[in-house]
Amino acid sequence: MKTILLPTDFSLNAKHAADFAVSLAGLIDAKIILLHAYESPVSTTPFVLPLPQQGLMQEALEETRTLLAQTKDDMLAKYGDVLANKLETKLVFGNPVDNILEAAAEVRADFLVIGSLGEGGVLANLFGSTALSIAQKSKIPVWVIPQQSTIQTIKEVIYASDLEGDEVGCINKIINIGALLGIDHTKLVHVKEYLSPEIFPSSEIIDLLEEEFGGEKIIFRNLYRDDTIVGIDKYIRNQKPDAVILAQRPKGFVEKLFHESIIKHLTLSSQIPLLVLQKKY
Predict the structure, then answer these.
(1) What is the pTM of this model?
(2) 29 — alpha (psi -120 to 50), left (phi > 0) or beta?
(3) Which residues of 113-134 are buried (b: 16+ CB within 10 A; e: fewer)?
(4) 242 near 274, Cβ under 8 Å?
(5) How far apart (Å, rounded) are the C-alpha atoms in residues 131 and 23?
(6) In this predicted structure, what is the pLDDT of residue 42?
(7) Buried b (16+ CB within 10 A) or exposed e, 13-40
(8) What confidence tens digit (pLDDT) does each residue in 22-49 have?
């Protein structure tokens, strides 16, 4: 059985991400681990906290435990047919980003699902900079779910590629995920700014990839635009895919795609689910 790690901060946004996680779990016969990262308001002073303050901290912790249990009960009430014996909870303490990534490794999660407000809004609580940091640092695939996105079957996706690094390995990973989720086809689109230099012509790379993956339900597009991010946004709006895929190289290499932070941009503004993968250099 596969495992989906679902961080929550108990917000409406988190509940929307939970709906997507349940849909995903049903497709791949996975269990869900509902996780909350609790940051205790511990004093940084070397002095012992007064008993009243200690009591308030304990009360906050117990309230968090109750919320986590209630969230589980609500999910079982809503999706009991999908989640029967497949929903667990986990409470961790400390920095949300570090603890979520450590938990993903500990439970050997196959996917991580987290929410974002989208539409360029100011992200709050867990789903602010935390969602972006997790998407950038995670070693496993991360689904970032905008609050206003529609939860539906994913049949068509766009993979926004920089054509750098191990593109063949990354496409194979996308093909495998597509087979799991029943995706009909993927459009690999590379958007290049007119005057940006190329070590290897992108058109030749696209030709090689088409030769390698002909018949694999992948359509290749090589586009030239004045601005990469604007070009990607416009292409997504025009094509209306069910989800967008991005891939990034490991930390220590260039972490930006297309010389701009496309991952940051789409994590904070996308109106459809976004899947972020790691790609070898």
Answers:
(1) 0.87
(2) left
(3) bbbbbbeeeebeebbbebbbbb
(4) no
(5) 20
(6) 54
(7) bbbbbbbbbbbbbeebebbbbbbbbeee
(8) 999 999 999 999 999 987 665 445 555 5
